[in-house]
Amino acid sequence: MTAETLAHLMEESNRTVLLTGAGMSTESGIPDFRSSTGLWQNIDPRIVASTESLQKNYEHFREFYQMRITALDNCKPHKGHLILADFEKRGLVSLIATQNVDQLHQQAGSKNVAELHGNIVSIRCQKCGKPHGKEQFLNNSICTYCSGKLRPNVVLFGETLPTEAWDRTLHEIHEADLVIVIGTSLEVYPVNQLPSMSRGKLVYINREQTSTSAHYSFDLVLEGTAGEILTDVHRKLGDLKKF
Ligand code: BV8
Fold first, then answer.
1. Considering only 45-49, 67-71, 127-131, 230-234, which range has the smallest mean pLDDT?
2. Measured between alpha carbons, how far apart are the two ends of the chain, in Å?
3. Is there a smaller number of Cβ atoms within 10 Å at the N or the C end of the chain?
4. Which residue segment(s) compose the domain that 65 sits in?
């Protein structure tokens, strides 16, 4: 019933925006942050993923991101990512605003992706901002130009979000008549303000119930994994649109 309901909502919508989080990537082998198997169960994000850690704890910071960047080499988009790219191709999705830093949406073929928290696959110098290669970060190099510290282009706790991605997302959410939130606990500000900015229908897809769904008045909540739910919706759309 609920997958079919979502298929109908998507078919009727003129502009659908997706908001994804780490739960969209766990089926690709990338751990999330706050579920029982999440990264923050054993690591304090303030020690490894904040502006303070970059300044005062650089070795810890660098080790944490070297581990995450290396782990990405064995991860690829799963069926759910490929289905979202197919939805975009068929004009059913206009933007994916993601908190994910792994670029799996783009690897799956999605073109309109706003990286609200940046990514860990590109590197820059913290001091002069010049781009550097991933290998230079992985082998503990310093900036070629100013000897500054190298860091991934990820938005750390305490950093502002990229203006272009944020503004584009705000505009799209404002115009959307359907916003589908997939695999995020909505704990992180300011992304967690986005669903309440939607004037359209609001749908939540998550593996488990979180306190979140109580906060937001979702029109529809689908409990289960992104992969299985998106597969069901894709099948139902096929029945509807004969595509
Ligand atoms: C800013 C980069 C202002 C790191 C990330 C006190 C109160 C409120 C706010 C604050 C506060 N103190 C500080 C703040 C602000 C802070 C913040 O919100 N902190 C929170 C945590 C308390 N925010 C910031 O600092 C932001 N910047 O506010 O700037 C400013 C203004 C002027 C000048 C300077 C600054 C920056 C936030 C960005 C931080 N960076 N990532 C990295 O990734 O390495 S956040 C990090 O959390 C990731 O990006 C991640 O994507 C994001 C959100 O997490 P989720 O994606 O939701 O993941 P989570 O594990 O939580 O949930 C996944 C869900 O999926 C689970 O429910 C799980 O059950 C489900 N799931 C799992 N598998 C599946 C599934 N569902 C379906 N299918 C599955 N297969």
1. 45-49
2. 20
3. N
4. 31-74+120-154
pLDDT bucket at 212, cuts 50 / 70 / 90: confident
Taking the CA of residue 158 as reference, the ligand 1 atom at the shortest distance is 25
Give the C-alpha distances (Å, rounded to integers) separating 8 from 5, 19, 125, 186, 188.
Answer: 5, 19, 47, 25, 30
Q: For ligand 1, pick from 52, 189, 221 the residue to mutate: most ligand atoms within 8 Å of CB.
A: 189
Task: Say how many domains are in the chain.
Answer: 2
Same domain, 124 and 211: no
User: What single letter denotes the amino acid at residue 84?
Assistant: L
State the pLDDT at residue 241. Answer: 61
pLDDT digits 0-9 by tens, 137-163: 999 999 999 999 999 999 999 999 999
Give yes or no: 117 in active site.
Answer: yes
Distances (CA, A) of 128 to 90, 144, 148: 42, 10, 7
Q: Candidates 48, 153, 188, 210: which one to mutate for ligand 1, based on the most atoms within 8 Å of Cβ?
A: 188
Residues of the chain above pLDDT 70, percent: 98
